[in-house]
Fold each of these.
Amino acid sequence: MSKWVYMFGGGRTEGRAGMKDLLGGKGANLAEMAAIGLPVPPGFTITTDVCTFYYANGRTYPAGLEDAIEAGVAHIASVMGASFGDRKQPLLLSVRSGARASMPGMMDTILNLGLNDDTVLGLIETSGDARFAWDSYRRFVQMYSDVVLGIGHHYFEELLEDLKADRGYILDTDLQAGDWKELLGSYKALVMKRSGAPFPDDPYDQLRGAIGAVFSSWMNQRAITYRRLHDIPEAWGTAVNVQAMVFGNMGSDCATGVAFTRDPSTGEDTFFGEYLVNAQGEDVVAGIRTPQHLTILGKQANQSDLPALEELMPDVFRQLDAIRRILEKHYRDMQDIEFTVQRGALWMLQTRTGKRTPAAALKIAVDLAREGLITREEAVMRVDPGQIDQLLHPMLDPRAIRDVLTTGLPASPGAASGKLVFTAADAEAWVRRGEKVILARVETSPEDIGGMHVAEGVLTSRGGMTSHAAVVARGMGRPCVAGAGAVRINVTDRVMTVLGREIREGDLLTLDGSTGQVIYGAVPMVRPDLGKDFSLLMEWADSIRRMGVRANAETPADARVARSFGAEGIGLCRTEHMFFEPGRIVHVRQMILARDEDGRRQALDLLRPYQRADFIEIFRIMHGLPVTIRLLDPPLHEFLPHTDADIQEVADSAGVDVRTVRQAIAQMAESNPMLGHRGCRLGITFPEIYAMQCQAIFEAAIEVPPKDAPSMVEVMIPLVATRRELELTKAIVDQAAKDVFARCGKTIPYKVGTMIELPRAALCAGDLADDAEFFSFGTNDLTQTALGISRDDAAHFMDAYHRHGVYAKDPFVSIDCEGVGELVKIATVRGRAAHPGLKVGVCGEHGGDPDSIDFFEGIGLDYVSCSPYRVPIARLAAARSACRRIGNGHKELADSTA
Ligand code: PEP
Ligand code: MG
């Protein structure tokens, strides 16, 4: 026969904390606290299996439940020395829901159950307080009628207000025992009128009704919505906890409170909590009375005049403080607790893992490991990479008021405020005169790099999570809100409208790149101090992880940030960004518009010294670590001028007229540039471009002294689909190396590898691996080409796709494991079969996404490469994935208790 009910308290506890699936979170923790000897009011838990049965059998209960409940009530009664329905020593009960995952406030609770016209007399006697007893009784009738009989609170509130008006009372506390008793009469009449039946007097009828209502509340709209938002399966069901009532509102020696065993905002090891004297649980959270602090320190820190529990009830406080330590040791984590003091006796009503800020999560994890309560692996598992992400960027002060205009995609985390500008040139000009700016564009192009670099933050009205703006902003660590569709930008008039509001150039704007909010005005910011705890956790993560973590960086500034965040090399240096620097773009344009190879060579000769200097600087910064340089990738027309002034400048420097330049621009237009003349196709059609880049790379590598040189120079070919493409372009690289080495009389080691970013390349990886010394998955393009979804246009429909559950997450953010991930897996297996030991990494945006990193760990990639600001996130995520795999029994955990 199944066991439907588990008792706890009074030396008879049947459940434990590990039984959350069956007993729910609250029930399991009540059992655990009772089992370790903490003062818990006795009770019993009706299991989630009963809930499952209830819904599977037309809302009926399994045979034997009724008897088990009666036994449970008898257990509570015997521990409390009271009896259910007894006139002298009435037992009163609370009935609460408790699912596996906490669903605060979503389901129903009933307190003071067991009261009727008889038992209230017993309560008057045992409490010695008639006012309290009648008030408790009417609270029960009101709560029960609402939850079980469906008669809304407001009907009862109206009756209470009428009575107060009639008597000239202002506060509820003005009511005397007789008033409450009289009100109760009206309450019961109301119940009779609205439900057509008298309020149930029999305590067992009351209990049956309450249990049914709690099970039913699993399917109320609030609970259904909450489950959908938090991915809680309906099949889990809820448990029901029936417990002896304890009262925090029986007089001035009573209290009720909530507390955290450590400070949930800072993580400091201080007891943090609030309480109210002579109150019931809901009064603390309702915010009607000002709660008092638990500790004298807390009271002082908050400049409160009200006495701390430590002063008012020192014995109770000492006992509670000891329980705080016991719970932390026992659960090995910070706890969120609820307690009640009845006539000087402390009762624990709840304990659960406490929610905390990212800063607190970090501090608590590191402190607990240092204190020896958890291992280093556990500490690493306790900090979510998303929390580290938040810590690395300035955040909006959570207390500040926000005038939110609209919400776009949270494309690059962190917050920024500045004056609104609409062009990259304006951004640069305004910053030169000392302003801080936010750059708003419909979408950005490589031309906007300068403006993006000086701006505090970037806003676009179009484009997805891997649009140019998003990728570049993340790379720069610049906050960015992308694809804010409600924003209409009018560059000509320097104004944007958002849902009817006009925002002009120079107006202050704040972006929250972590939530996608676009806010009017400047919101105050806070930047949490990372400090020693952060470095320590990262050290632990590094000692655990298997995969390498590199950075995508192309400027010296990015490379420095990457190194300071612990990058183990550069996994992707996108050389095209180097072409946009002032002084160069004009030569680039000259090169593109040249009529023949000679013209191109002349322009390339002018560019080579710049490229060489760039590489020298990056090599020095990355000394001792590998650097992967990708040859030119984007369609050339991205470099072409758009403004009249730029077109004129190019015409002048090339010695042609403006019309010729315009014609050339028109000729180069492509209808589908992402699938057009780009990547290795450029190297094949204009080999001199790749030759120039390689010459600069090898000259730079030879020029830096060995102690300042990278451990390996890796040249990478973009957008390869066929082996022949790789052969042709690799030949250019090898020839350039040969020429430079011969001329300088010196050689350096180098490798040539390919990006895998087209489905054909993934499928034919075995073929490519014959010629490639490494693979790096360009998962941005691979996602785009595998799913046939344009990187830059996805934002328009991704939201709808998400709502309809087409992709669980934006596939440009988190790898589509079944599709794109499968291609990565196939390519890795086939590549390594052909080329044993082939080094395989990822350099698309997914390289910085924790869920994708978990997938890459699972298929055994060698490293991930991500934007510099994500390097710590990737280090932590890679360590967590390794821990999970070790946890699955792949490898023994080293004994690393701190
Ligand atoms: C990619 O496609 O994933 C990649 C890294 O290259 P890019 O984003 O520069 O196209
Ligand atoms: Mg690519």
Amino acid sequence: MGEIRNNWSREEIRDIYYRPLLQLVLDAADVHRAHHKLGEVQISSLLSIKTGGCSEDCAYCPQAARFHTDVKVHALMKTDEVITAAKNAKAGGASRFCMGAAWREVRDNRDFDRVLDMVKEVNKLDMEVCCTLGMLTPQQAEKLADAGLYAYNHNIDTSEEHYSEIITTRTYDDRLNTLNNVRKAGISVCSGGIIGLGETDEDRIGMLHTLANMPQHPESVPINALVPVEGTPLAGNKRVPFDELVRMVATARIVMPAAAVRLSAGRLEMSVSEQAMCFMAGANSIFAGDKLLTTGNPAFNQDMEMFRTLGLTPKAAFADGHPANRKNVMEHEPC
Ligand code: SAM
Ligand code: DTB
Ligand code: SF4
């Protein structure tokens, strides 16, 4: 059930995507059971270590300097503050700690050295440490891997065709190049996208087609529902109806059976029963904590209540192997 394939045609993905919703959810649940422990959900915690003032023009993003939003610019946080946040996240049950910076790309400067220190320190806490810092060169990816980085988040966001409607300051290929650099460095790849940007169903299918045909699927696939933020060009976009999110999660689950599908931005607007349907459809990871990067997320206690209600259990760190071991394996595998 749910063979891992990297040769999906668009038609095959389209056929899955358009199945009647309940059929799609049940099919995805079958694939999910074959590859994952039922009810086990990874809890990731997110911290914005450098906020706002970004030079990119991603139309959805409240942190782009050119849009006038309420986000306050904040320079890179101090390492000890970051470590305190990571310890708190661990105490709350998070197995992964993701540090986000509003950078277009990483520069080889003191700030990057400080991020490398943060990675080393979080790693000592026995948590899966993740970063999302923008574009990376192969050398920067290597440095992050050497510091003990477990995963790197870099979303392709939408289809190649729709990309230039959303972002003009970089290309889809720039994004794919960074993902390739991350993969080659032996770091776990986290890449997904956003729905609700004004894209068509074909764009959603196209995005999944790109992800599912990577030589190796991303280990994590975040599916974000746009959080429309005042001041951004997409502020007026309608909220994504929950059935569209379920459809996206279920299709991602079927075409990338072993990946962790993360129900990411947009949970604040969803009821527990709507989220339950996403978990049935194969979502097995969330961001927990009262804040995402700059926007709200369900209160931590509310999420723990949801875990109790639905009988979900938090996934332990490194359940899929430690990066040090994984890197040895990767060196013998073509990327
Ligand atoms: N600057 C880095 C980058 O672009 O990769 C890292 C931070 S960026 C904020 C991380 C991801 O957050 C984006 O790729 C996008 O998918 C998601 N994101 C940003 N704003 C969002 C919003 N308003 N709603 C949903 N997802 C959003
Ligand atoms: C991802 O796919 N979603 C997270 C994480 N990766 C970095 C970010 C969501 C950001 C939502 C808008 C905000 O809070 O600024
Ligand atoms: Fe900058 Fe990332 Fe926001 Fe784009 S998504 S504006 S790169 S912080």
Amino acid sequence: MDKINGLIQKVTVDYKDFPEHVNEVVEMKGIIHRIREMTGFAFVIIRTARDVVQCVYSPDFSDYRMDDKVVEGCAVKLTGKIVKDETREDRYEMQIHGIEVLSSPAEQMPIVINKKQLDNIPIDLNLNMRPVTLRNPKERAVFKIQEGIARGFREFLTSQNFTEIHTPKINAQGAEGGANIFKLDYFGKQVFLAQSPQFYKQMLVPVYERVFEIGPVFRAEHHDTSRHLNEYISMDFEMGFIESFYDIMNMETGALKYIVKLLKEEYAEEVALLNVNLPEINDIPVIKFMDAKDIIIKKYKKKITDFRDFEPEEEQILGKWAKQEFNSDFLFVTHYPSEKRPFYAMDDPADPEYTLSFDLLFRGIEITTGGQRIHDYNEQVKKMLSRGMKIEDFEGYLMAHKYGMPPHGGLGLGLERITMHLLGFKNVRYASMFPRDINRVTP
Ligand code: AMO
């Protein structure tokens, strides 16, 4: 009888192991990314999980003869000798002794994905053909970097005693208010797709004190913009026993520093491939909302029409200002007007027209919203009533307040937004593997 022991057998070699196997004959599995026929020999470029490996086919190396079944797109097992690449420093290649075809494509690739980057194909074609365009080394590097960002967030918060949570995405109420909520028929009842894990992360503060979640959230954005998706990954945390909302900004700054370090150390190849300009994060400057408006008026001579929020152009001005004045790619803006913040935001006791909340701007674009929450039951009920909300609809959420919760706060950081600005994309769709926007639900 067969028994499974959980030991993963590895018989093939990865590119990163090549230096240890110079002059040895080894096996490697991968997909034929490209075949470049030369006179008397051919380069067979193999795409593995994270590398693009140069292999050389020549009748001089062995008796093996490549036939026309060996085509681009085949999944193969190669046998060959590892040698140093004489033309490129610190690179190794394989001299092919044999190719076993494990599977073959049914059709030839309709677009060229095996160049260094996708040749200026229109964004719609790129997204329509995502299962194959993601195979392009630069495209896939984007989501490796994205993995690094989410991993850094998770690792850092875990090291700070946060508990990872998974909260429901089908809910009886929306957490963020506004019209951008998806309605769903749930066995004849109307329910909503989660706009954020806000209620649940707060409810879990009296349970675990510090919690975080990395998960999808849904926003029924009705416009086709370059920075909004209808489904995005929200990286959230919530922490109890804060002294002030500065604790949250400090925690986020720590997480961002950790993420940048992780990308430098463990994602160097992707960082180099995409030519990523990693920010140097030292201390992040903090400015109050109204002071920021003042700078925009006085220093940049801009007329302000809305004193309750920023226009995208104003955020860009502030981004420039932070760079010029503090050499910082980041800027915390605090004390947003109460009127524009959700009902759970705590008003500033010193000036209740403003909240103990903040946004983080990265290179002039908002990537985070956060702040201190109301923890007192009566205060929370009062604010909800003043906004015309029905208390009985929020019984579950308010249970947390009713039976006691510590002073707390947290934030939400859009994974695609931060990826987009880190990589300098003009459109957030490039930072989403399979974007959902007003016109797109496939592939
Ligand atoms: P907010 O609604 O500001 O706050 O969202 C937080 C962050 O999520 C990202 N984001 C989006 N990304 C892509 N497409 C969208 N449509 C989109 N909408 C928002 C942004 C934004 O900064 N519950 C609060 C957070 C909190 O206070 O903890 C919330 O969801 O990066």
Amino acid sequence: MGVSQIAIAANSLICSRLALGVWRLAEWQMQPRERVAFIETALELGITTIDHADIYGNYTCEGLFGDALALKPGLRDQMQLITKCDIKLVSANRPEHTIKHYDTSQAHIVASVENSLNQLRTDRVDLLLLHRPDPLMDADETAEALMDLKQAGKILHVGVSNFQPSQFDLLASRLNFPIVTNQVEFSVTHLTPLYDGTFDQCQRLRIAPMAWSPLGGGDLFQSDSPSAKRLRSALQTIGEQLGNATIDQVALAWILRHPANIIPVLGTGKRDRLQSAAAAAQLQLSREQWFYILAASTGAPVP
Ligand code: NAP
């Protein structure tokens, strides 16, 4: 059975229950045809939502992905493309940047989206995220840029990433349409959005958040910290109870169990790991199993 789909907000974008992030695409060393095959594997599994940012791979990943789409243009309409803007990196590919900073000015947002469309070889992105909250964001100006881009059909939906609820509310107060997601770091190794109001806000607004680094960016498998060791052991125990599910599958099922309908954004470049993740979407953790893993993460049962 393929990965299911979900409307991330009422009457809004339909996304797959698991998304594929391509932050590491440039590291995967794939030839264009291998990239096409990898994208096709994701789509066949029902993983149709693809997460980009302008800056990924030092501003190269959107272009690498666009090259693959150019080989098989029919793939574009089978997926939802997310990209992001507002981080400016110091990079040989952007020699005009003198310090890493954020830019939510109208001029930068519009220029960044135009560039993303060119790189991705598409006429619209399904969802644009502001990548990081900008302390100098002028909410009126930023909202105007986003509303103009949406009006022009260049972006179909708007979301945010790494926003606190108050920052989300500020931007939302200036837009004439709803913000449809907040993409935040969340996993068994990173619990903050459970407690800082982020997921409460998403549930209140009935929007599905997205979880980046859903496997701790790989730390879950590599780290020798006491917490990572406890987690591996706990995930293995629960995996055995679920009929020999692997620890990555249980870690994803733990995210999927949350009632806010969190969408894990997978970071793997391996086809077999995509398959394993897709199977994880079928696992159902009990409440007790979920809390067992939470306790392994924090090192103590809940108070
Ligand atoms: P992740 O899934 O937590 O980590 C992926 C890493 O873990 C890869 O190096 C992968 O290596 C490794 N891995 C996966 N399964 C494994 C396994 N079973 N055993 C050993 N290693 C395993 O996700 P992420 O890459 O950190 O982030 C995912 C996506 O989130 C990114 O691509 C990006 O789209 C998004 N993101 C967003 C933000 C933001 O600010 N909005 C920030 C960071 C990331 P292999 O490739 O070898 O499998």
